[in-house]
Amino acid sequence: MPLPTFHMINAAPQPVATFSHAAEADGWVYLTGQMPTWPGQPERALPGGIDAQTRRVMDNLGLVLGGLELGFEHVVQARIYLTAFERDYATMNLAYQSYFEAGKLPARTCVGVTALAVGALVEVDVVAKRP
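Above: the chain sequence. Below: its structure as tokens.
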């Protein structure tokens, strides 16, 4: 098996820690959890509320996927982290599912956490498979 390839995507937000945007091995692509930060504007305030933050996170994932010539249709698994699980779960789900074709949702885990980097309400990471 060849060594993994590590990807940084210029159009995606700057990492908030020490990581690559994605790592790839044997056609499997593991995207680092994205935060609701703004590409090219790391100091800009986070969007307000869970709907806006979820959409910013998903848009950021879309930038990474696009930079790898992939899309949400290639996502096979997602993990979602929420700091206010009970309050935000339903609203997050509405925003999240809008990024996928109806009936073609990836496998998923969603958990409540005590805190996320940059004070975010939500973080999402995904695994995609190249066709």
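The helical segments are 50-67, 85-97.
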